[in-house]
Structures are given as structure tokens and as C-alpha cells.
Amino acid sequence: MSYVNDAIAAISTPPGQGAVAVLRLSGKDALTIAAKVFRGRQRPAEATPRVQNFGTIVDNSGTVVDQVLLTVFRSPASYTGEDLVEIGCHGGALVTRRILELLLSAGARAAEPGEFTQRAFLNGKMDLTQAEAVMDLISAQTSLALRSANEQLEGRLGGAITAAREDLLNVLAHVEAYIDFPEEDISPETGSALKARMEKVANLLDGLLATANRGRILREGVRTVICGAPNVGKSSLLNVLLGFERAIVSDVAGTTRDTIEEAIQVRGLPLRLVDTAGVHAATDAIEKEGIERTQRQLAGADLILEIVDAHLPDQTRITLPVDSQAKHILVLNKTDLGLHPNWEGTQGVALSCTAGSGLELLCDAIFDLLADGMGENSASMVAINARHYDCMSRARDYLTAAMAGLDNNDSPEYTALEIRSALDAIGEVVGKVDAEELLGVIFGSFCIGK
Asked: Are strands 38-40 and 53-58 parallel, antiparallel or unpaired?
């Protein structure tokens, strides 16, 4: 997507019918284009910024298409940093599409996906982490995901990365000034002092990298597989967690032949529940296929809820894949019928799907196992995504190499190269990779060329 300052337009609200809809128009000719289709007391170019103006949208023949509220946001005090117009109209699919057609025929072009936010980034209204947070905010399905997106949108991640970049810029500026301007009266810092400053950045990166799994959970959900022998209450547990009858429940063993998947949230954590066929010696080809699908689900699980009938003696337990990294909770079901002595002292969560008891204990156990510092009282909800992880991992590797070079008394040129590579990798997180910044720090901090 190449950036130009031409006018773009799009419907900003979801498709379908509703009370109202919003269209956006942004670019250097936004006010002129809006004036071609809007009739009101004030022309868009004369309108007071951020004040809604009542008027009508008309076509080329002067026929009224809809009554609207038009709001002008002047550059640079707008979402995109450009002149921006928002048109609030009635929420019918036909009327919104017709207004968009008029804007396009008046000189705008259809905005590409994400182009309004891209312009906000290119115009310095936000960094890349904040731009990504816009989509996280829109797609958030739980309270914790919403909190994480808001923190990132406010710039908490971007601020931490910017601080790390400034630290590395200062380190690199000193090293390169020593290399390039030996005639200046500049004393190089000792290797231990430089290493300490780099270790500070490395520790920050380590802390952020540790939130990668948290980010994956909040954005993708925890793949939670409910498994166990036939007729132990797997489908009943799915229904209880969902709060409605999603799966067929029967006393007949083997009722569930295929996997059933639904999404819920537990204490703000998104879970993708998968109900599976009971694992036992299959008696026909269909049951065998169902059990094989259960095994595949177990292999890809993040969390396994293994459920057993706790009023009966020890029964066949599920054999987990050898290389499984999934977390595991044993659920002792049917405790309303009594807990068999064989299960006493077993680490697990006792509940009864029939009586509805113990569900809160199970939710607490799931949250405690997965929360990883994501509670309501946690100080920060920063959670990096896969792109951030890649950039920070590379930066961390370069810093490790630079610090090792200092320990080995390698040439300062080698150290500078590794620091610069780390700086570039960190800059990718927020979208800042600029060699001129380094020159500014060198000449500003050390007064070279005075």
C-alpha cells in the first residue's frame, strides 16, 4: 500500500441494518469533496471542527439521499493527521452504499483495508504497536483482551520500546563517535559500563518476550480439550460451561462421535472448548475415527480437562501425547452421587454437572493455571504479538553477541555493528528505523563539529 495524500472514503460501520452508520473521508481534498454532496448551514470548509452539522446528502440532480450529521476534523488534529470528515447517516445498507458512491464520484477513491490507520501511523499519530492495537481493540472478545489492547493503544508497549531505543542510541553514539572521531576529546566508557547499559535493555526485552504466550492466549484463545472415557460427562461439562445445551447428552456410551467446538471466556480468558469422543476400545469404524480425532485434538491442546466419573472406582485414564506441552486439570464429575474412596486425596476439581456444583472451583482452577499475571489487579497487561516477538528475539540475539564481543575484547567496530543491528530490530517494533537519528545523537551529545 503506497502512501499518497489523495482523498479516500469508506463505510466505517459494519455492514447490515442499524439505526445509524458512519462514513469516513480523509485526505487533502476531503473538505472540497464533502462540499459537493453536502448541503447544510455551513460548508464543510467553514464548519467548526469537531462540531456536528445537520444537513442533507444530495446527488448530482439535487435529489436528497439522506439527512445526515457531518463532522469536520482538521489536520493535524484528526485520527489520520489529515483533513477528515465523518458523515453520520441512517443505517440502511442501501443509503450508506449510495452516499459512498457519491463520495467516490465526487473525487475520492475507495480506501484499502486499514488505510485510515496506516495514514495515522505515517503521519506520526501513532506507532506501529498502537496501530496494531486498534485491530486488537476491535476484535477483543474478553475483558482482559480489551484491557491489553487499550494499554497498547495508550502507548505502554511503544513507550517501553522507545525508551530501549534511546538507551541503545546513546550507547551506539558513544561507540561510533569514538571510532569515527578519534581526534575529539571523548573518553570511551569502559566495557563493563557499556555492557551494563546493554544488559538493562536486554532485561527489558526478556520481560516483554515473556508476555508472548499471554498475547497468544488473549488474541487466539486457549485450545481446551475436554476428554475422558465414555459416559463420564464430557458433553455435560461442555453444556454447563457454555450455559446452554450445545451437545447431546445421553446415558448411552459413545453418543459423541465427532468433536464439537465452542468459544467461552473464563474470568476474562478466552477458551476454545472442544468436546471429544470418549476414548475406549472402538467397536466400529465410526467410533474409531472419532477416537482418532480425539487423539489429534489432544496433540494440539493448550489445556486438557480430563473428566472422570468420581463415584466409581479408578477407571481408565487418558494417555497424553509424550511431547504434549498442554496444561492439565483432572475433573472429578458426578460427586452428587458420592465420591468413591479410591478418588480421595486425588489432585483434581470435584464437581457435579447435574447438580451444578463445583463449577466456580473449576473456573478458578483454569484461571490460576493460565492467568500468568493477567489478573484484574495486575500492574500491566502488555502482551506482545508474533511480529513483536520476532523483532525482539533478533534484537536480544544481537545484544547477546555485542556483550560477548565486549567480554572478548573484540574491536569496537564489531560491537557497533551488533548494537546497530539490535537497534534496527527494536525499531521495527514501533516502525522506526532511521539512520539520521543516530547522527543527531552523536553531534548533539558530543558537540562534534563545534
From this structure: antiparallel
